[in-house]
């Protein structure tokens, strides 16, 4: 699988065994196995449980989280625009 790009608005991401599950308005809308992931790119208004981040780190999956008001300077420090 490699890279997953998540840009759905107003979702919550939780762990579900060895998968990440997506919830919208309290209802599960889908899931994705963690094993084949190399990179996860998350953009927008997303609620992520720390257990998801922990599982991605343990699997050595690179995670990139972007917000439309944030930018990265040359020294790789996040600042608000």
Structure description:
With 81 residues, the chain is mainly β. The chain has a single domain (2-80), classed as Ribosomal Protein L15, Chain: K, domain 2, CATH 3.100.10.20. The protein has one helix at 50-58, and strands at residues 2-6, 11-16, 19-24, 27-33, 37-43, 46-48, 62-66, 70-72, 78-80. Strands 4-3-2-6 form a four-stranded mixed sheet. A three-stranded parallel sheet has the order 1-5-7, covered by helices on one side. A hairpin with a 5-residue loop joins β8 (70-72) and β9 (78-80). It is globular and about 30 Å long.
Features of this protein?
81 residues; mainly beta; Ribosomal Protein L15, Chain: K, domain 2; 4-stranded mixed β-sheet; 1 helix; globular; disordered C terminus
* Beta strand %: over 45%
- CATH architecture group name: Ribosomal Protein L15, Chain: K, domain 2
Taking the alpha carbons of the first and last residues, their distance comes to: 33 Å
Main beta-sheet strand count, sense and barrel state? 4 strands, mixed
The chain-level structural class is mainly beta
